[in-house]
Amino acid sequence: IILPLEWFPLNKPSAGDYFHMAYNVITPFLLLKLIERSPKTLPRSMVYVSIITFVMGASIHLVGDSVNHRLIFSGYQHHLSVRENPIIKNLKPETLIDSFELLYYYDEYLGHSMWYIPFFLILFIYFTGCFTPVEEESRMPVAALLLMGPSSLYYWYLVTEGQIFILYIFTFFAMMALVMHQKRKGLVLDSNGLFLFYSFIITLILIALWVVWLWNDKILRKKYPGVIYIPEPWAFYTLHMNNLH
């Protein structure tokens, strides 16, 4: 959206797509490295299945996101459902709308589930190995403190755009329960564990501020009618900032 359209025509991958392709290669590699560093791990076959599922989900999401984001240039509005979008209503034959709903399902539901469940599972497994009996190891360096902001912002975007608050909050509760359980054994979080735990806490604060800010938005309320109201940033963008591109 920021770069000139002439550089990346609508029928070709965008700059964001290339970054997403790199993510799909780099992130599984880093997750494997995290698992290797953790003293507690799953059976090797389960780790491989988790990584394979992660790559499949992230790849499905890449294709769906690429098409959905390119539709913005044609007037698609993410704050509306597929069938409520003006450009979709006029499609002929009407069975084409079913195809776009299928694309949305692969992107927002199947892709997200296959992507985020293994991702948070591996993070939690890594977290279980981030405990130490030595108090001196429970101190974060300055670099970690500086990186905590970007890390929390990244998790905030994953939770809000991915609509995975339930998965996130259950992971966070499991982390809290593990911290209290290990504390009874005289173990404390090391610097890596503190970084991940504090990032999740700041993420929860950012989500709360985001929800409070958009609490009275009637249009977004209609798009997200459930008990858990957490609007997607892309829906906010097409509703309130669409004139920027």
TrEMBL record:
**Which keywords belong to this entry?**
Membrane, Transmembrane, Transmembrane helix
- GO biological process, alphabetically ordered: lysosome organization
Origin: domain of life? Eukaryota
Q: Which residues cross the membrane?
A: 18-35, 47-64, 115-134, 164-181, 193-215
Instruction: Output the InterPro entries linked to this UniProt entry.
Output: CLN6 (IPR029255)
One Gene Ontology CC term in the entry: membrane
Name of protein: Ceroid-lipofuscinosis neuronal protein 6
Organism, by scientific name, is Antrostomus carolinensis
